[in-house]
Structure prediction request, 285 residues.
Amino acid sequence: MNATSVGALLLCRADPETVRPTAHLLREPMVLTPAGEDWSVLVPEGKPWRGEGPGAGKGPGDDGGEPVDRVMGGWATALAVGSTWPVLALWWDGDRAGYTLASGFRRPVGYVWLADGTPVGEDEAMRTFAARLGLDPVLDVQALEALTRPDPDADAEARLRGLLAVLARTGVVLPAGVGPGEPADRLRSAAGAQREAERIEWAGWRDAVRVELDAVERGSLGPWVRGPRARAIAAAQLVVGVPLLLAGARRRSGGWLVAGAVLLAQGALGLAYNRIRDEAEGRPR
Prediction:
């Protein structure tokens, strides 16, 4: 990686049809394409993070964005808390590279390497990472822990590729040209060139709600969209979404603002959908 290779992607453990409705709620243009068996990848079309290169965003060239890891962490959280599948954000810039794994309402876990591959994360993060993705507790954990040890021949890009090699055992296959070290523009072009690629673009809340309801009716969002458990999940999304919005506003973090907005939208939609269907079927609420 070099000073101009800032990039990021979101790996979702679900097929594109399942990912599409929640991705719309991020309100960011993205390219969505399959990434192996039961995996999809979202590649941002824009660069809503600080300018590229070491020290970018800290002086006259500041474009007003956030660090790429903070933006991607917020997006991964927003996707995961409204879903039944985990989301892995991979990111890199001229100084560092790393990942953030978000899964449901649990605290996200992540790891960071400096550009030369020096590990600066906590070893426990790798074990938590393996457990949440259901990886082999012996062989896969050993491979992951090797990424936390000093290695003069492995830079940050090699560390991320090592991480993806472990994930390949779960079915991850990134499209050609979509991978660590590539700049955002090249990632977007490579993802968009895939035969099954589709563009995710915000077209307003009405369209987002329609997409979400269509997914509910098809059953692609999982079995817990109706009934007491679904209402409990929707209520929890509302409860968690408000403080996330406030935290995002306080920190001026676009990523956390998006996460809070997605939670509130999905919680309200979930409660409304259950109420409407119960009334239509004459069921007591």
Notes: The first strand starts at residue 7 and ends at 12. Strands lie at 7-12, 30-34, 40-44, 87-92, 96-102, 109-114, 198-200. Residues 254-280 form the longest helix (27 residues). Residues 52-63, 220-224 have pLDDT under 50 and may be disordered.
